[in-house]
Amino acid sequence: MNSHILRASLISFAALAVSVSVFAKEPIDPIAPVKDINLAQVELGKKLYFDPRLSKSGFISCNSCHNLSMGGTDNLKTSIGHKWQQGPINSPTVLNSSMNIAQFWDGRAKDLKEQAGGPIANPGEMAFTHDLAIDVLESIPEYVNEFKLVFDRDEINIDDVTQAIAEFEKTLVTPNSPFDQWLMGDKDALTANEKAGYKLFKESGCIACHNGPAVGGSSFQKMGIVEPYQSKNKAEGLSAVTGKDADRFKFKVPTLRNIEMTYPYFHDGEAETLTEAVDVMGRLQLGKKYTEDENAQIVAFLKTLTGDQPSFTLPILPPSTDKTPMPTPFE
């Protein structure tokens, strides 16, 4: 073997060994690249994700509440739906959502595909019906042709629509954050202050719920363990799905990936800043009152979880035709 190649191979192996030794003992894992993706479905799903014609108003798309230019959220306390209706709950980020144990704060959708169909038919969100959404798509020849090419059948159905949207959403992962770089062996990727914040994050017990590659999203926990959480929001959490009183105010633990971009925080959006969110979670969940310096250190660590968001050309949507049902935004 060429000596240069051998040396490069040994260096690569050594780097890998260091990477494994660093993050193997940590409760947080680096985000891995996307695997097993159907690219044809992704491209179709990307169009559907941005297409407002899947709403009654012809104005609201998936991207309206999960804006990919704003951390996959809308940065509002609660989202705005059809005819300016106030949504019942804060819009969680779509970034890294494929890592969640379930979708929505209360887990009522088991996966991204099931979630994708919900807002379309929700009268408070996109306010359409699945049948009408299919009528719109079938009136547009370019969509008809693309669905046939992608799914190899003549008709368009809501199952294929949600499958394509979900496949696109699977690509919305954010690897290569400074923290991931540190996990994989770059000792200079974090400052001393950020490392201190991570140490405090672990020692305080935050890591019990916020762990794994998504730094959360893998369990349901009660909001307000040490102290009750006071909220005007009527959301009951997991109990709305299970019917069990023991599940009241249990919500899916949110991912902390890209958390500096996904304000305001909590299911009711009441915490406007990370500083406020850290203070509330420390007191209510852990029984700990952080000092100003401790809070700032944890916030500094949390900001290292912002990774590289996928970048792509905005999809150009196929034009409507004379047969396309007109939107009714004011009805």
TrEMBL record:
Secretion signal, residue range per the UniProt entry: 1-24
Organism per entry: uncultured Thiotrichaceae bacterium
Domain Cytochrome c span(s) in chain numbering: 40-148, 192-306
Protein name: Cytochrome c551 peroxidase (EC)
Presence of the UniProt keyword Glycoprotein in the record: no
Requisite cofactors: heme
A GO molecular function held by the record: cytochrome-c peroxidase activity
Residue numbers binding heme c 1: C62, C65, H66, H82
